[in-house]
Every structure is written in C-alpha cells, then in structure tokens.
User: Fold these one by one.
Assistant:
Number 1:
Amino acid sequence: MSFSQSQAEMPSTKRVAVIGGDGIGPEVTTQAVRAADAALVNCEQRIEWEWFPWGTDYLFEHGSMAPADFLDQLGDFDAILLGAVGHPRVQDHITLNGLLLPIRRRFDQCVCLRPAYLYEGVESPLRNKTPGSIDMLVFRENTEGEYANVGGRVYQHSDHDIAIQTSVFTRRGCERIIRAAFEQALNRPRKRVASITKSNAQGYGMVLWDEVFAGIAQDYPQIETESLLVDRAVMEFVRRPESFDVVVASNLFGDILTDLSAILVGSMGLAASANLASNRCHPSLFEPVHGSAPDITGKGIANPLAAILSAAMMLDHLELISAAASIRGAVSSLLRSPDRPRTPDLGGTGTTDEVGSAVCALIK
Ligand code: NAD
Ligand code: IPM
Ligand code: MN
C-alpha cells in the first residue's frame, strides 16, 4: 500500500465549535450535536465538539458576550454550530453585535443559504399545498447591505437626537451572492432565480444590485429569471410560493423573507441555515433561522429540527455527505409519520428531547 493510499484511508476528525447561546439555543443545539454523532457512528470520520459558554449569561457574568479574542479562538475550527443569541433583558443590538454579527463579518460569511421545503406530513398555513410543492432556496447576502453597521448617533438624549444608518452595496458583494445563486440554480431541476430588491425607492445600492443581477443573468441563458420589488415579492410568496426556486436578496430582505418562507412550510422550528465563508480557510457557521424564542425557553418544547437540519448542512459542508443524508432521511421519516413525536409548533405534544431521540433512533 502506498503512503498516499494509507493517508486517504485514515479516519479524520473535524473540529467544530459549538455556541449554544441564549434561550432555546442550547436546548436545540444539544439535539443537533446528538443527531450528528448518531449519523457519524457508521463513518470513519469523527467530530470533536468544543462547547463555548458564550452569550448573554456570559455577558451578565463577564461584561461581554464572549472573551475579547473570541474571533481568534474560532478561526482554527472547521465549522461553527450556533443555537441563537438574544435575551429579553438586554437590547438586541448589543447581544447580536457582541457575538453573531462579528462572526459573519470576520470570517466573510458572505452567502447565507436558507432552504424552505414543505415536508410530507407537515401542513402549510396556506390551503391545499402538497408535499414538496414549496421548495425554495434563499441566498441572502450576509456581510454588507443594510447590516453593514455604518452610521452613528449624535445629540443623543436631546430633542435633536440624530441616528444615521447607512446601507453599503458593493459591486463585488452583489456579484458574489448573485453568482452563487445562479450557480446553485444550475443544479436544481427548475432552474429559476428570482432577485428581490426595492430599487424603486432605494435608488443607489439596490439599483446597483439590479444592474449586477441583469448582467450576471446574461451568463446563464438556461436560467429563467425574474426581478421583483420586495413588497410585491411578499405577496407572491403567499400567492404563488410554488413558483419560487432560488431566490436572491439583500441582507435585510433575505432575513425577513426567510421568516416568511419558514412559516409557509410549517414552522420556524424547521428552518435551517448555513453562513458560508468566502474562503475555506475560514470556518462557516450553521444555525437555525429562528431566534432564542424567550416565550418557550426552558419549557422543553422547542422544535430541534431546524438545528438538526442545520447540522446536516454543516456535515455536507464538511464533506460528510452520507451522514448529512442520513439525518435528512430521518427527519423526513419522522415528519411523515403521524405516530412519531412532534413539538407543539407542529401540532404535537412531544418534547425537544423526545424529537431528538426519535431522530437518533431513525438514523440508526
Ligand atoms: P424567534 O425566532 O425567537 O421566535 C419567533 C416565534 O417562533 C416565537 O413564538 C417562538 O416561540 C417560535 N419559535 C422559534 N423557534 C422555534 C422552535 N425551534 N420551536 C418552536 N417554536 C419556535 O424570534 P423573535 O421572538 O423575534 O426573537 C427572539 C430573540 O431572538 C430576539 O432577541 C432576537 O433578536 C433573537 N434572534 C436571534 C437569532 C439568531 O441568533 N440567529 C435569530 C432570530 C432572532
Ligand atoms: C437571523 C437573525 C439575525 C439576522 C439577527 C438576530 C441579527 O434574525 O439570522 O435571521 O437578522 O441576521
Ligand atoms: Mn432573522
């Protein structure tokens, strides 16, 4: 056996940083790690998980959401798995700008991928939708746009209080997210891309976006395109969700549209996401679309499937393809069967732990 063959057959270990975060974050992340471990049982590969206690409890104790060098600490991992950030006792811009948003920026996680698929056994709030009829993949720009964090406040606490919040759209930023969307559409049967802006009112940044979209579309004559204003788009998401395949939108619009796409396919508790770094030297981050859900925190009823499906996206990214497929298969079987546990958001009486256990049992 040659040296290179024996190297190739060596079991490899991937290192993943886990940040449970706030609220239901740790509850659902625990189940995601369990499911990934169950899926890896029959593989040569292993994941070494390192949990970090960062988040708002850490802030209460230490005065910051994470240690000053947290981004350096994360830089060496193969991926990051995150639960959620946000606490009712602290303003969200403080908690989110102390943890999640700097991670997206530091590691240039410019593509946020958010699938929405109507599983068999799950009811859409829209009438008469059949399994698989809603199947969209939103590409959300993730490092600039309305989230560029450019602006400031002056004359605070006076009648002349001024707040300036600037959106930043760069040709490079628009090009890379829009091209990524087109490339993905080539691999999907329906081959459609919808771009969503508000360029009738946002006459600089979003006009640049529209121009870039029209230019890149020329390179993909086999892809059908449409360009919608966001107000029209939310209406069409409800009226004709089946017509959407790949959707590409700015940071803020992608954020809003993916709470809508999540509920169209049944629940926030099913919506997974990947924040993909532009360069594989940096870790990508995987997390549910939902937040810390303070209204159900600690009740043991949070749906862990969004976190579990986010872990499946992470396994795909780490090229642990069969493990990812086994998680997806287990989630589909679970949802298909009315006798298996499901959490209240899906009309059941099951707990987070029962659903996590059922997924693990189905993986085996
Ligand atoms: P949310 O997503 O936390 O909750 C919205 C609704 O969906 C709530 O009724 C909640 O109970 C329900 N829900 C969410 N996830 C669920 C799950 N897994 N199972 C069952 N039900 C679920 O949105 P929000 O209430 O607007 O935000 C709460 C906090 O989370 C805020 O502090 C917000 O800033 C933060 N947030 C963080 C992230 C993140 O870390 N990525 C994402 C969104 C919101
Ligand atoms: C999401 C969240 C975050 C976002 C918030 C918490 C900053 O809503 O990931 O969807 O808007 O990016
Ligand atoms: Mn959101």
Number 2:
Amino acid sequence: MERPRGILVIISSPSGAGKTTLARRLLGEFPELEFSVSYTTRPKRTGEREGHDYHFISAEEFQRMAGAGEFAEWAEVHGNHYGTSRAAVERALSAGRDVVFDVDGQGGCALAAKWPGDSLRVFVLPPSLSSLEERLRRRATDTDEVIRRRLKKAIEELAYHRRYEHRIVNDDLDRAYQTLRELYVTAKRTLPGDASELEALRDGDRNRGDWEHAERLIAEGGRRAGGEGAPAAGR
Ligand code: ADP
Ligand code: 5GP
C-alpha cells in the first residue's frame, strides 16, 4: 500500500564529515527520493549548480523570504544564511514523496520538531578530527581561513549528535552508506506510526558504540581548543 505522506530524511554532520556524499548516493539509488534544495546567500562553489545544490539568492531576497515566513527553518552558518522552503517540503510530503535534507544540527532539530513522527534523523560522524580536517582541505573549494572557521564550527556542531536518534561513523564510505540505506529503508516501511524497528536500531550496539565515538571526538575537540589557544592567537 502506498504511504499517504512522505517522510523527512534529515542528514546532518560537522562540515566535511561526508553528509553530502552519503545523501547524494541515497538519492542516486532511490529515484523517488527528492533533495530539499535550500536557499543560501553563500557564493556558488565551483561545480555547484543553481537549483540543484542550492538556490543562490541575495541577502535582500533572503530577508524578504524570512520576513514573509517562507522558510520552515533558517540559520546563519559560517556567516552566510541558509533556509528550507516550507512550501516545497509540504508539497513533496503531501504527494507521498520522501525528502532528503542536508542541514546543520539546529536546522535538523527544527525540522523534526515541525514534522514529528515523520522524520528520520541521522548524524554523520568523521572517524577522527584529523580526518575531518584532511577532508575539508582535500575538498579544496575553500580558502585556508574558511577551512579554519569550518573546523572550529565542526567541532562545536558535533554536540548536536546527542539530539539525533541515529549516528553513522563515516570511516569506510560503503559501510557508512549501507547503514544509512538500512535506516532509510526501515523508516520508509514503518513511518509514520510504528517506529519500533527504528527504535531497535537506535538502541542497538552499533549506535551505542557510535555515540561513544562521538563523545570521544567532542572531548578531543575540547582539548584541542584549549591547547591551540596560544598559537592560534599569534596567527
Ligand atoms: P559534508 O557534506 O559533510 O561537508 P562532503 O560529503 O562534501 O562533506 O565530504 C567532504 C570530503 O570528504 C569530500 O571530498 C568527500 O569526497 C570526502 N569523503 C566523504 N566520505 C569519505 C570517506 N568515507 N572517506 C574518505 N573521504 C570521504
Ligand atoms: P555548505 O556551505 O558547506 O554547503 O553548508 C554549510 C552548512 O549549512 C552545512 O552544515 C549544511 O548542512 C548547512 N545547511 C545547508 N542548507 C541548510 C538549510 O536550509 N538550513 C540549515 N539550518 N542549514 C543548512
């Protein structure tokens, strides 16, 4: 039987942990899934396409849309504004289409609060802080200054994992993807309504281990912030 309403697949992570890679792969495998294209005031990166990665708009237009209540949620991240169109989400969900969101932790929490019972929330974790830094650098789409800011924000963002039901450590991409896929297929079959299978996955050993991994990263981030204060001030 067709589900009457679609579900929200909310994927968040510190910048560079791999949520876009994982989200795009899920979208590639399940053509019925739709990506929620956010609005942003950030400049377009090389290779990004208008209407595919983001709707790139001016700060004035963003203000107008926010003032008119057109966003289901919006946030300032790294000095730029990002927002999710309320109408686009509603249209997809009412038509029975599932929607993937690549948003930050606060955005993910706001969306899940708006559509409780219809949301699958997954937090992607890097294997280590050094691998996160390396991935941010390898992506090579940002300047050094932007990368430093993103890394600091990434460490702060890690604490949001506590507000997500599921975690995935993105060490091996194929393994990480299989976990995301399993979560999605289970959610698709059981939401809204019976969340017991998802709860079993949430309470499973893997997710508990990944929670501990996240807590270790947060502790390491705290130590780094303390230890790096002096040299950073001299830069
Ligand atoms: P995010 O959307 O979380 O900022 P991306 O998906 O853009 O992160 O990934 C950041 C970089 O890390 C990209 O260059 C991507 O190809 C790479 N990457 C993603 N997952 C892995 C992985 N499991 N192992 C190694 N590199 C990865
Ligand atoms: P990037 O500039 O790397 O594309 O995205 C920066 C951060 O903004 C990422 O954590 C991304 O998930 C988040 N983001 C993208 N779109 C939205 C949105 O519509 N709302 C919120 N809250 N965050 C978003």
